[in-house]
Amino acid sequence: MARLYSNENFPLPVVEELRRLGHDVLTIQETGQAGQSVPDEKVLAFACAEKRMLLTINRKHFVRLDNQKRDHCGIIACTLDPDFVALAYRIHSAIQEHEHSSKPLIRVNRPAH
């Protein structure tokens, strides 16, 4: 399963469900870096230093970072979905679909209704 690092505003219920699905998820809160206004570049660098893909709903900034610098371990940019379990399963499926990609940018969007 994937090694992931969740950004500060990423929903904890999604993290918990991803853990139940077998993923190794570290949160920014668990690293003691929450509430410190850590720049996005440093968040991404920390994730890569830990050999983890970054989980974020801050899509605009991290997609831009992906375009600027490709030296990261992967970014999973999600649309916020209040159905946290469904979001976790979409992330899980997307990870499996991209498991052989190196340093991917994975976009996980909320389904249109």
* Distance separating the two termini: 30 Å
Q: Give the SSE string.
A: EHEHEHEHE
How many structural domains in the coordinates? 1
Whole-number mean pLDDT: 89
Strand order, largest beta sheet: 2-1-3-4-5
Q: Into which percentage range does the β-strand content fall?
A: 15-25%
What is the CA-based Rg, rounded? 13 Å
Structure class: alpha/beta
Name the poorly predicted regions: none
Using DSSP, what is the number of strands?
Answer: 5
The CATH top-level class label: Alpha Beta
Biggest β-sheet: count, sense, barrel? 5 strands, parallel
The CATH topology: Rossmann fold
Q: Supply the CATH architecture.
A: 3-Layer(aba) Sandwich
Annotation keywords:
single chain, 113 residues, alpha/beta, Rossmann fold, five-stranded parallel beta sheet, 5 strands, 18% strand, globular
Q: Helices, strands, pairings?
A:
Layout: E1 3-6, H1 12-20, E2 24-27, H2 40-49, E3 53-56, H3 59-68, E4 75-78, H4 84-97, E5 105-108
Parallel strand pairs: 1-2, 1-3, 3-4, 4-5
Helix pairs in contact: 1-4
